[in-house]
């Protein structure tokens, strides 16, 4: 008797939960980043940015097309590996996500973008800077940061005009991001009338750079530019010091993290490193970014590394387009997303051009003092 009653009650409870679930539509948003491997600290930072956006949207309550919706974050790890990236993309497509934020690296974002394009699912990358990403003719690809042409070119010019580099050496990690940004840096140096004395390469898993650096030392560079990520840049800076190379060290957003001093084993001298982040806020907008960083710290007990604010804005831009279109169906809201203009995010004002690139993307130049990142200037 008792058993039957329990079964009946369980059945009623199931009906009740089914009733509330159907009253609230669930909209799935995918996020992909490397939450394992050498740059897991950056992947986790990205994922936290997405989590924060979703939690805040759910707390606020969002209505799309007259229906109350609840957002669900499906987070995947691509380990910074292109093969793993396409597998993660396929998994999200099969899970019927309404949109995707990611991936972190250009090397994973580019192959994954084909899968999302074929499925008609919008993809907003908060951090992939290789120009190819938005130049494949896909209608589904968007990005929230300036690309390598802008990033590398600006850094190249800065090396010659501001840092007065006379003999500049370039190293890259042979990834889509590292090689791409290094190529554009080299072009920027030449355009500003400077010259590069060496071009070397390594890979994104390397830890020993003695051979490359010994080769460079003979050329007496005053600036060494590295196209790659902070997990490789840290040990490289340490080994430069061991070999007595006194050059300034430059890089793009991949090295421009809060972890870099730690990854170099404390080998960085003040103002030795100059890096740029694709993005930047000034004046009034800085207040919004500072408030975001404080909320992030309270929520995750961690400082923002690099891209979390861009991920946060990416999620919110997707949702704003859904609200405006009155639908979370990609077919209906994708055209609205493409026409995003003047969206006020924590990373600045977001307007997409016809390729899905951000218009008038800013860059922020940084250096490090006493183990902390310090802003030098915002350049456009």
Question: Would you summarize the structure shown here?
Answer:
This protein is α/β, with parallel strands linked by helices. The protein is built from 12 helices and 15 strands. It has 2 domains: 22-145 and 285-359, 3-Layer(aba) Sandwich (Rossmann fold); 148-278, 3-Layer(aba) Sandwich (Rossmann fold).
List keywords for this structure.
380 residues; alpha/beta; Rossmann fold; 2 domains; seven-stranded mixed β-sheet; six-stranded mixed β-sheet; 15 strands; Branched-chain amino acid ABC transporter substrate-binding protein; signal; Peripla_BP_I; amino-acid transport; transport
Question: Can you put this structure into words, describing what you see?
Answer:
By secondary structure, the chain is α/β, with parallel strands linked by helices. It contains 12 helices and 15 strands. It folds into 2 domains: 22-145 and 285-359, 3-Layer(aba) Sandwich (Rossmann fold); 148-278, 3-Layer(aba) Sandwich (Rossmann fold). The strands form 3 sheets. Strands 8-7-9-10-11-14-15 form a 7-stranded mixed sheet, with helices on one face. A 6-stranded mixed sheet has the order 2-3-1-4-5-6, sandwiched between helices. α2 packs parallel to α11 (308-325) and α11 (308-325) packs across α12. The model is unreliable at 12-22 (pLDDT under 50).
């Amino acid at each position: 008797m008792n058993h039957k009653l329990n079964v009946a009650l369980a059945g009623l409870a199931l009906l009740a939960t089914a009733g509330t679930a159907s009253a609230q539509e669930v909209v799935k948003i995918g996020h992909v980043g490397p939450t394992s491997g050498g740059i897991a600290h950056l992947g986790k930072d990205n994922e936290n940015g997405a989590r924060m956006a979703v939690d805040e949207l759910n707390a606020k309550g969002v209505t799309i097309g007259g229906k109350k919706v609840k957002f669900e974050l499906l987070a995947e790890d691509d380990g910074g590996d292109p093969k793993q990236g396409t597998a993660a993309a396929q998994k999200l497509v099969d899970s019927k996500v309404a949109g995707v934020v990611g991936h972190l690296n250009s090397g994973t974002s580019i192959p994954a973008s084909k899968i999302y394009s074929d499925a008609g699912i919008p993809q907003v990358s908060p951090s992939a800077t290789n120009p190819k990403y938005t130049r494949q003719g896909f209608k589904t690809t968007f990005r929230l940061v300036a690309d390598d042409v802008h990033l590398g070119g600006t850094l190249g010019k800065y090396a010659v005009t501001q840092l007065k580099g006379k003999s500049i050496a370039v190293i890259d990690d042979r990834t889509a991001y590292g090689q791409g940004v290094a190529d554009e840096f080299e072009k920027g140096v030449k355009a500003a009338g400077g010259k590069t004395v060496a071009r070397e390469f390594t890979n994104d898993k390397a830890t020993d750079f003695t051979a490359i650096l010994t080769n460079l030392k003979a050329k007496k560079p005053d600036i060494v530019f590295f196209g790659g990520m902070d997990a490789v840049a840290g040990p490289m800076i340490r080994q430069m010091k061991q070999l007595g190379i006194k050059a300034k060290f430059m890089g793009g957003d991949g090295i421009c993290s809060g972890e870099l001093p730690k990854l170099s084993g404390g080998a960085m001298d003040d103002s030795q490193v100059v890096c740029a982040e694709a993005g930047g806020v000034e004046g009034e907008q800085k207040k919004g970014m500072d408030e975001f960083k404080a909320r992030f710290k309270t929520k995750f007990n961690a400082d923002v590394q690099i891209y979390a604010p861009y991920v946060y804005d990416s999620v919110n831009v997707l949702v704003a387009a859904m609200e405006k279109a009155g639908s979370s169906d990609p077919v209906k809201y994708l055209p609205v997303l493409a026409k995003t203009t003047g969206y006020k995010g924590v990373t600045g004002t977001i307007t997409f051009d016809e390729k899905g690139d951000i218009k008038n993307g800013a860059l922020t130049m940084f250096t490090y003092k006493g183990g902390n990142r310090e802003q030098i200037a915002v350049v456009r």
